[in-house]
């Protein structure tokens, strides 16, 4: 059975304070305008909902010495994002010099607080007093800052229970008590924050309590770092990252408890790499659309073609709860409707491409020769669907369409002709549908061709290709009967994208998934 990929914006309104300003409930299976949902190298996102806007606060993913500032992004609908640069820099924190990590936002008492890690202190360095660092707290009058250091020193500047003071999350419970969850080096702690939000409270009522009673270890099985806490239907969900952040096995697991202090016993892993989509998926936040049961996991991941550990990008996908309150495994979906007006995550090829632009929810390619726009994916069996529109071409045979199982792309950034090894399914305004096998030497071999009623220029047609093993099918508008069926085993996996051949093409609602 083929997956039915539907991206809907539903008009729920009753009791939804989160939609008072926009009138939009962001009800999507994944980021509808594509992942990454913002450009740039970022990691460790956390999030809040402030004044009708969804806010995401990430780490700038560069070498530690270059991690000296924090940016933020805001959106009314999880589609259109505004960047707020340099909301906090090391110039505002006299004790921080590098490795400003994992901002955790929260608002209280009319102020906006941002908790962050800095300087990547190691236990021996801290014990010897050679480097000040740990978890700091900054405050601002607006979500976008500017934020300033609230106390002039780390809020948590030492190791307690073996936990490196990094990767904090701040959670405000229904009774008004705030908690900070944090920890690296495979140890996790929880502590209470006082109402001022800039000092650590006591976990007991003993006013003579010691440091030991301020920090409780809550380390679950396989914990590495990246603490996160949410509450749903009276249940506390403690979440964290496992594996190494620089490797492909970075992932997210969770535990459930009746108390914000635990105990937390690991339930399951819910987010991990998909070798068809991305690797290193972890260190996350959870976006809850207020007044609904709509949840997203916002996280960083590494594009498949990137080998630099710092080349991480921001993504979000839907997070579903089972009837018993457990969390279902998250599926990383591939989709782009270009509603955000950009083509982040796409790479262009071809020396005769006049222009690739985004307009009116379409990726537009105008080409005198051949041009490719490719996603960084690596699907084997697949279902690829898109709306495709073609204008009259500039040569005898001009068409536009979908590319799949592609590799060895040539002509990146206009350095030569757009060539590849893989498959291509195209349509022409002259009224034909074609399935071809491409070779990176520039040759195309026709595997099948069909006639269709003459296609109207600049009109969207829904095109779908399925490839399961060596069986390939091409559909146009009707998904009941394939126009072309072919058998070919030359290419078994590769990237996916769109192409223009001597024509102008428009592409929208591009999705790639595995058959089910």
Structural write-up:
This protein is an all-beta fold and 516 residues long. It folds into 2 domains: 17-336, 5 Propeller (Tachylectin-2, Chain A), CATH 2.115.10.20; 346-513, Jelly Rolls. It has 1 helix and 34 strands. A hairpin with a 5-residue loop joins strand 9 (169-172) and strand 10. The longest helix has 5 residues, at 123-127. The termini are close together. Mean pLDDT is 91; it is low at 1-21. This is Carbohydrate-binding module family 66 protein. It comes from Apiospora kogelbergensis. One of its GO terms (biological process) is carbohydrate metabolic process.
Précis, in short:
This protein has 516 residues and is mostly beta strands. The chain has 1 helix and 34 strands.
> What global shape is seen?
elongated
The tally of helices reads 1
Contiguous uncertain segments of 5+ residues: 1-21
Return the CATH class of the largest domain.
Mainly Beta
The CATH homologous superfamily name of the largest domain equals: Glycosyl hydrolase domain, family 43
How many discrete domains? 2
Mean pLDDT: 91
Using the coordinates shown, work out and report the CATH topology of the largest domain. Answer: Tachylectin-2, Chain A
Approximately how much beta-strand content do the residues carry?
Answer: over 45%
Distance between the termini: 5 Å
Characterize the largest beta sheet: strand count, sense, and whether it forms a barrel.
Answer: 8 strands, antiparallel
Gyration radius from CA atoms, angstroms: 25 Å
Classify the secondary structure makeup into a structural class.
mainly beta
| Second-tier CATH architecture of the largest domain | 5 Propeller
- What's the helical proportion of residues? under 10%
Count of strand segments: 34
InterPro entries: AL/BT2_dom, Glyco_hydro_43, Glyco_hydro_beta-prop_sf, Glycosyl_Hydrlase_43_Enz
Pfam family, one: 3keto-disac_hyd
Keywords: Carbohydrate metabolism, Glycosidase, Hydrolase
GO molecular function: hydrolase activity, hydrolyzing O-glycosyl compounds
